[in-house]
TrEMBL record:
One GO CC annotation: ATP-binding cassette (ABC) transporter complex
Subunit record text: The complex is composed of two ATP-binding proteins (GltL), two transmembrane proteins (GltJ and GltK) and a solute-binding protein (GltI).
Top-level taxonomy: Bacteria, Pseudomonadati, Pseudomonadota, Betaproteobacteria, Burkholderiales
Organism: Vandammella animalimorsus
Keyword Cell membrane: yes
Domain ABC transmembrane type-1, first and last residues per copy: 15-202
Record-linked InterPro entries: AA_ABC_transptr_permease_3TM (IPR010065), ArtM/GltK/GlnP/TcyL/YhdX-like (IPR043429), MetI-like (IPR000515), MetI-like_sf (IPR035906)
GO biological process: amino acid transport
Domain of life according to the entry: Bacteria
One function term, GO molecular function aspect: transmembrane transporter activity
UniProt name for this protein: Glutamate/aspartate import permease protein GltK
Keyword entries, A-Z: Amino-acid transport, Cell membrane, Membrane, Transmembrane, Transmembrane helix, Transport
Family label: Belongs to the binding-protein-dependent transport system permease family. HisMQ subfamily.
Amino acid sequence: MNYVLSMLPALWDGLQVTLTLFAITLSLAIPLGLLLALARVSRLGPLSALVNGYIWLMRGTPLLLQIFFIYFALPGMGITLPDFPTAVVAFVLNYAAYFAEIFRSGIQSVDRGQYEGAKVLGLNYTQTMRRIVLPQMVRHILPPMSNETITLVKDTSLIYVLALNDLLRAARLIVQRDFNTTAFVVAAVFYLLMTLVLTWLFQRLERHYARYDQ
């Protein structure tokens, strides 16, 4: 028990890095994903095609490869980012593409009759989206958003390749120092707790919006 307690400060420092990356990615990727989704379903053909290509590229290549590209390739173009901003950019660009597809699916799940009704009421496209479509979209996207958010928690461990001291790297350094894998078990408990909290939050949201279907 004393051994576990002795490693907690180092793991806590790593956990803060993990949570910071998670929070920044979520706060930036969700609004960016929504904008991409709106562009994807817009009637502007070239814009929709461009966004579709971006989503296809980001979802079709590994996140780890995207991290490497930003870290190693961009300096050759005269753009150099510190390690943590590199991770943020890679994660935001990647997850915005996934969230965009979730939002697109949610938008297209709204019955077309809702659009016709909005037109009868004299609402323009922006008003229709803001007042009618997006509020109804929320309850449809919660399950896939939950899955993607939980995946993000686990994907944060990929930043070990940038030598950032996240939760997993902090645990690995302890294991290498002490030749004892207990730190991995404790790190796994932290990841599971984060997943448990997110699952609970999304389940509450799903129950909240389910009331409007009754």
